[in-house]
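Notes to self, 2'-5' RNA ligase family protein:
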Amino acid sequence: MQLVRGEFERTASHWWWRPGWERGRRYLTVHLTFGVAPELVREAECYLPALSGRAGVDVVPVPWLHLTMTGIGFVDEVSPDALEEVALRVLGADATPSSGVGPLVLDTLFLGREGLALTGPLPGWLAGMKAAQERAVGEVLGVERQAAAFRPHVSLAYFDAEIDEPGLVAAVHEVGLRDVEVRTPTLSVLELGRDEHVYTWRVIRERVLELGG
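result:
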C-alpha cells in the first residue's frame, strides 16, 4: 500500500450541492457495498483511530462504505417499472463477472482534495460490469450516456473544510498501510441520500459477488 496525494493546493469540503441535488431529494444508483466483505471492514476499522475526531474530517461509518459505479437518476425522474428493469439487467448474469475472476485489489491510499480513499487498478471484470450498467441505464431510460472516467475507490473519509493535512498523513502512516483484497463485494441498486454529511441508502436490489482468489 502506498499513499498518493492528488494534485490540488488545499483540501476543501466535499458536501457542496451537485446539480439537481437538494436536501431530501434521493438519487438512484448502482454501487458496490461491503456488508459481507470482512477484509475491507477490518481495514477500514484500523483507520478509525487515525481519522476520528479530526477537525473537518467526516469518517465514513463502516455500514456506509461503498464504491460508486453508475448513476441511474433522481427518484422523481425514474418510473418504478424502469427502475425494476434497470435493476434486473445490472444484476443479471450477463452484466456481472463469473465467480473466480480474482479479488478487487486496493493497493493505494489516495489523499484527494475532498477526501481520503482506498483505490487500486481497474480490473477488466469491473470495467466490463461498469460498461454493462451504462448500457442498461441508457437503453431502459432512452438516454445517451456520456462515457466518463471511472476511477474505482472506497472513501474512508470526506472533508467538510480545509484540514490539517500533515497531521492526517502522519496519523495514517502510524496505522500501517496494507493492501486490501476484496473477495465478496455486494452489487447493489440503491436509493441514495446525503443530507447529513454521510451517504446513506435504501437497498432496492442486491447480489453478492463471489470473486474468489
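- DSSP finds four helices and eleven strands in the chain.
- The first strand starts at residue 2 and ends at 5.
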